[in-house]
Specification:
By secondary structure, the chain is mostly helical. The chain has 14 helices and no strands. The model has no long low-confidence stretch (mean pLDDT about 85). One of its GO terms (cellular component) is membrane.
Length: about 280
């Protein structure tokens, strides 16, 4: 869904438009729900670190990876995130997942990798690669590490009582502010797109709402109540969930192994939740 607009606008402008729109929506939502009073502001360094590391460079790296490598390769590289997050959580928070949770997470990861490798039909237009492979790998791993850190660093604030929706709003507002300031720099990279249309604007904002608002908020809730590595594994299910979307967009049915991977991911999720 985001591949076309990202390639047309460029990584910076695509991210800037998404962040500003989503920040405005989340600020309005938190104001209507009265969530600002429950924010534990003493954790402001965590908010800043989450934005400076976990949103801006992470998003720019992910969009650049998406533009160069397509959605399948990007999602495959992002599957490294649960492993990275689990290592960070063990070192920083001393979290050790139970054997059942670890088994479920491993089944989920195996299913996700199968879904990514075999989920899209060969030759799909959205999966073409521009340029060599090594920058795609570097950008994908950078995005995975930064995204994982951005969520993990907010766990202490949420354990102290800050609502995950408020966390999402603050992160987005700070990121939108920083991106807007950077956008004042006179550079071709930060120049607004001259051919922005209402249709392109909508196609740019919609993936942002799904990713920044819905997905991020739900993932923050998971980080607040589960071990970070397990939460990150469950939050990596998007390659499984987008199989029908890729089928619809590209008009090519995903291969059998892709669907088997999807079933494995669902099975692993059941192991984590039920046992």
């Amino acid at each position: 869904m985001a591949t076309g607009p990202a390639r047309r606008l460029g990584a910076f402008e695509f991210a800037r438009v998404q962040l500003i729109a989503c920040a405005a929506l989340m600020a309005l939502l938190c104001s209507l729900l009265g969530l600002w009073a429950g924010v534990t502001w003493s954790y402001w360094p965590h908010f800043v670190a989450s934005v400076v590391i976990g949103i801006i460079p992470a998003n720019l790296a992910m969009v650049a990876c998406l533009r160069r490598g397509g959605p399948r390769r990007t999602e495959l590289l992002l599957t490294a995130k649960p492993v990275i997050v689990a290592a960070m959580a063990f070192i920083w928070l001393g979290e050790v997942p139970t054997g059942t949770d670890l088994l479920g997470a491993l089944i989920v990861m195996a299913g996700i990798i199968l879904a990514i490798l075999y989920g899209s039909a060969e030759g799909a237009e959205s999966d073409r690669m521009d340029g060599p492979l090594w920058p795609v790998i570097g950008l994908g791993l950078l995005a995975a590490s930064a995204i994982g850190f951005g969520f993990l660093v907010m766990k202490p604030a949420m354990l102290a009582g800050t609502d995950p929706l408020a966390v999402t709003a603050i992160r987005l507002m700070l990121a939108a502010f920083v991106m807007s300031v950077i956008g004042l720099w006179p550079s071709p990279v930060t120049r607004p797109a001259p051919d922005m249309t209402p249709a392109l604007l909508g196609r740019t904002i919609l993936p942002g709402v799904i990713g920044y608002i819905l997905s991020s908020s739900l993932l923050l809730y998971a980080f607040a109540v589960l071990d970070a590595g397990v939460a990150s594994a469950l939050g990596s299910l998007s390659p499984v969930l987008i199989l029908p979307i890729l089928w619809w967009v590209d008009g090519k049915r995903p291969r059998l192994m892709g669907w088997i991977g999807a079933l494995l991911a669902v099975l692993g999720t059941g192991v984590i939740v039920a046992l």
